[in-house]
Amino acid sequence: MRGLRRSSLARIASTTRAAWARQCSSSIFGGARAAPYCTMAGRSGEEADAAMAGVATGGVEDAYGEDRATEDQPVTPWAVCIASGHSLLRDPRHNKGLSFTEKERDAHYLRGLLPPAILPQELQEKRLLQNVRQLEVPLQRYMFLMDLQERNERLFYKLMIDNVEELLPVVYTPTVGEACQKYGSIFRRSQGLYISLKDKGRVLEVLRNWPEKSIQVIVVTDGERILGLGDLGCQGMGIPVGKLALYTALGGVRPSACLPITIDVGTNNEELLNDEFYIGLRQRRATGQEYTELLDEFMVAVKQNYGQKVLVQFEDFANHNAFALLDKYKATHLVFNDDIQGTAAVVLAGLMAGLKFAGGTLADHTFLFFGAGEAGTGIAELVALELSMQSKTSQEEAHKNIWLVDSKGLIVSSRKDSIQPFKKLYAHEHEPVKDLLSAIKDIKPTALIGSAGVGQSFTKEVIEAMSSINKRPIILALSNPTSKSECTAEQAYSWSQGRAIFGSGSPFDPVKYNEKLFVPAQANNAYIFPGFGLGVVISGAIRVKDDMVLAAAEALAEQVTAEHFDKGLIYPPFSSIRKISTNIAARVAAKAYDLGLASHLPRPKDLVKYAESCMYSPIYRSYR
């Protein structure tokens, strides 16, 4: 390049910059050794051209052109392919910090940019874990880990994988709820893609702005129902970011194949609308045709840009939209709603594991749901499907074992004209009942499942009533975050005299009752969706069917042992989550092949080993 005239090089570079940038952003480096790429944001075109040509711009002059430019004078950001020096240290995907070897430091112009010490990745991890543990405020821990993810991607995931039980509550529930509430105040760097009403008619163009082109999993929210916290608008982005971090850490899906998206249609949260640091549209939430048209454009654009094998996971949409979107797109797109299907699968797995040791089948039990939203009815429907398959009866017959209580009381046939369509399946013949305790006394359920988001709704009287009816009452307090949990683990065990089979949506510490230590089971969707997503990806599935969700639940339940159950666990320990996800992925993939929905052919002989081989590894790679 030094032999070219500077003017000729400038012409070549100016016509190929955009092509180089696109090539760099979509590069996939294979093999055991790879050359990292970088971005050179901020250089003017002329100065970047000169840098490429090896032309000195002189002494201590402003080689990047930034100091010479005024604030209103535009500069040209563009990319080159091979990262080196300072740019490599600022590239989270390829940065290794003090783990760069002597040879790598010389080859990539890092000499002097790092202290002379060379630390193995394990020692870096040890230091970071100590730093995390010194932070007492959960939100500070969350911000520390998000900064690490933006600085050194592989080290972040290694830390997560090796310490998943300790760090899961930090990067996801319950801490992510507070992070979303304060997202505007703690916002530092965009971690996903924002599509707003301003982008209507240009959604495909917005998707194409994302640098990665080989996307396999999208998690999308409109922020209307974030956990049990309500409408957080654009600040709900913390949910897709957190979910996809778990897709990689727990399920082994490549980070570069994951895309978090928030669709901003406004918010009805007055506090946010009046918050000077709010990052979203300052308008009331759009509904009706305006909302529908934007979602339609988004779904069409996703398939056009990424193909039909990209998994779109709907997350934290309000009930009225969640069911409608899933029903609308399940026949034409690869879609999954974690609040409906993921929650249902993890709860069904807990019920199946509990019954495996407590005795009986699903058909022998009566289930009472406190909460008839997307989570409650989603669980109910999957339980009915599994029950009908086990007992070889119709789903309509299976519905008779399931009762729902909503904000107006027990759902009964006399209320059919005033309830939403998805609740009508569970409107049985019965006298109206206004409160949960009365419903328990009338229905005499063997399992009580809470998903209403009403904290402390499982009172002492409620737990005692369940315990008087059942030798081993099943109590599942699923609402998130912890403040919305229907009861605590300590309350469930003490009020049931240690007889409850308990599970919760948020984590609780072990409980000692009558000299016996109970380890509360967390019915966390993270047991299901990472493995489920991996199974969909490795099989190349083109649609999601209920049988695939059932397969995931059955695979999870099968990994609970008698030893686990003796400790009060109805789920296997999270310390083995990658093994759990591998088995779930294999079962989901197998079901996709059985149903003729898989496109990756031929079918691997050993799907478990194949799933393991496809999982992302956070171990540092060597660079040429």
UniProtKB/TrEMBL annotation:
Keywords, sorted A to Z: Metal-binding, NADP, Oxidoreductase
What cofactor does its activity depend on?
Answer: Mg(2+); Mn(2+)
- Alphabetized SMART domains for the sequence: malic (SM01274), Malic_M (SM00919)
User: Carries keyword NADP?
Assistant: yes
Which positions bind (S)-malate?
Answer: 225, 480, 524
The note on the cofactor says: Divalent metal cations. Prefers magnesium or manganese.
The processes (GO biological process) annotated in the record are: malate metabolic process
This protein's superkingdom? Eukaryota
Binding-site positions, a divalent metal cation: 315-316, 339
- Start and end residues of each Malic enzyme N-terminal domain: 149-330
What reaction(s) does this enzyme catalyze? Answer: oxaloacetate + H(+) = pyruvate + CO2
| Pathway note | Photosynthesis; C4 acid pathway
The record places the active site at 172, 243
Give GO MF terms, alphabetically: malate dehydrogenase (decarboxylating) (NADP+) activity; metal ion binding; NAD binding
Query: Looking at the UniProt record for this protein, which Gene Ontology cellular component terms does it annotate, in alphabetical order?
Result: chloroplast
Q: How is the quaternary structure described?
A: Homotetramer.
For this chain, the family text in UniProt reads:
Belongs to the malic enzymes family.
What protein name does the entry list? Malic enzyme
Q: From which source organism is this entry?
A: Triticum urartu (Red wild einkorn)
- Specify the taxonomic lineage: Eukaryota, Viridiplantae, Streptophyta, Embryophyta, Tracheophyta
